Amino acid sequence: MDGAGSVNTAAGRRSSPGRGERLADWADGRLGLYSLAKANMRKVFPDHWSFMLGEVCLYSFAVLILTGVYLTLFFEPSSVEVVYEGSYTPLNGIVMTRAFESTLEISFDVRGGLLIRQIHHWAALVFVAGMLVHMMRVFFTGAYRKPRELNWVFGWTLLMLGIITGLTGYSLPDDLLSGTGLRFAQGAILSIPVVGTYVAFFLFGGEFPGDDIISRLFPIHVLLLPGIMLGLVVAHLILVFYHKHTQYPGPGRDEKSVVGMPFLPVYMAKAGGFFFLVFGVLAIIGGLAQINPVWAFGPYRADLVTTGAQPDWYLGFSEGLIRVMPGWEIDLGGHTLVLGVFIPFALFPLILAAIGVYPFVEAWITGDRREHHILERPRNAPVRTGLGVAWLTLYVVCLIGGGNDIVATYLHLSINTITWFVRIAFFLGPVLAFVVTKRICLGLQRRDRDKVLHGRETGTIKRLPHGEYIEVHAPLTQAQRHTLTQHDQPPPYEIGPRVDAGGVRRPVTVSQRVRERLARAMFGPGSHIPKPTPEEYREITRGH
């Protein structure tokens, strides 16, 4: 009796749910977490190194949030003038704003303040660079196609907001370098016809530099823009989970299946380790590589400018456009239109906007309404790849223009030579880059075709009975042939006969003509090398 009672008591104790299980049941009954976790925690993610580029963006953004919260506790966004009497003795007795003084206090008096400042700045640079490289990966592989156009727009918006957030962030310390950047921005705003003066007065609270710009940039930088970006990041990740993850072509991979590892526990463990790796690398860079030493520049004064003042690299594009633009001015109706500043100022967002709308333009040209989950190798889309390389070439050319004084100094060249080089390369560089890239892609397609038909070169030379020397080719495996021939080569859009069977001329709109010409240029016979057919492969292998 006693033994049986003991067994029953133990069984009862084992059958009663624990505290954690009761908490899980309570949450599941109200939030439906079990079904949500069951559907998503085992979701399969493909494994490829290029997918880590998006994670670099995510983790650097997390580092930005963490370090930004710490810096916000000590920074004072005030334009009130004070006389500095602090730890950095070379600036003692200098009149400066309270914003600059608090930046010096963070750097020299707050424990770990300088390290956190530098980690924050490096993380911002890595964040924007990661977004650009990640978007280029998506662009070159065609990962933006249906159903991911909206996710592309989210990513593009994050890139634009990241650039603006970077501008507002490095303007807050009110040092001589950041003040020069604000002066540049104010001049660009003033160039806007008719309303430029009103917009500048509204932003700066009067004549430059004004007393309100720092206090206005602060909530924009620490609350408004990060809040919008955080919402976009969450939406971006939700869509990544909702859509099947894209994957590179290969055996067993098609539009309906994904080959990879489950999210939990494999992918989750890798993601956690990669986060600490990114955080550690940023911490090492922040501790060893000095960046933005505001004490060396001093406080901002409207009558001074730093020698060799340069913006962060992601804004060098806009400054390069303005530096190399001729100083054109037009007097119209009593208003002076400063075209030498306004045209580059307008070109900057337009060139970036071309990236944002490209997926919709391509979808209109192709008329393709299918879902795409298999990525394209860049070589199999030569025109798209050429356009991407042309855009990057244009960016690099304008970046050289933004640092024309630095380039001229270090290379011992005339600054006028650099300026004229950028002016010419602005038009010729992207064209040459497009042509060269397209030819390289076509050459790589020919090589893939030859590898499928003849196999790979082994380096082994064999002499035939009649004296001819040949190189022995090893045939590819079925998986390798599948990878090289999995891509589609759909025919380009065509309007069709202009006259129908009844002899009546069909109405053709201008948009249809433009669409046909663009489709022929992007997907016509000159844009790809035909894939080898099964008949060609059987004929050649039968000959072997």
Key terms:
20 helices; mainly alpha; 8 strands; two-stranded antiparallel sheet; Cytochrome Bc1 Complex, Chain C; 6% strand; 63% helix; 544 residues
Q: Can you identify the CATH class of the domain at 48-300?
A: Mainly Alpha
Our estimate of the beta-strand percent is: 5-15%
Question: How would you state the average pLDDT, rounded?
Answer: 88
The tally of beta strands, per DSSP, is: 8
Task: Provide the CATH architecture of the domain at 48-300.
Answer: Up-down Bundle
What is the SS-derived class? Answer: mainly alpha
Which outline best applies? globular
Distance between the termini: 85 Å
| The CATH H-level homologous superfamily of the domain at 48-300 | Cytochrome Bc1 Complex, Chain C
Going across the major beta sheet, what is the strand order? 1-4
Structure annotation, total helices: 20
Radius of gyration: 30 Å
Give the SSE string. HHHEHEEHHHHHHEHHHEEHHHHEEHHH
Walkthrough of the structure:
- This protein has a two-stranded antiparallel ribbon with strand order 1-4.
- The chain is globular.
- The protein is built from 20 helices and eight strands.
- The chain has helices at residues 2-15, 19-31, 33-40, 52-72, 98-108, 113-141, 149-171, 176-190, 196-204, 213-242, 263-288, 294-297, 313-324, 339-366, 382-402, 404-411, 415-454, 478-485, 510-523, 534-543; strands at residues 44-45, 81-83, 95-97, 261-262, 329-332, 335-338, 456-463, 469-474.
- A hairpin with a 2-residue loop joins β5 (329-332) and β6 (335-338).
- It has a domain at 48-300: Cytochrome Bc1 Complex, Chain C.
- The chain is mainly alpha-helical and 544 residues long.
- 30% of the residues are buried.
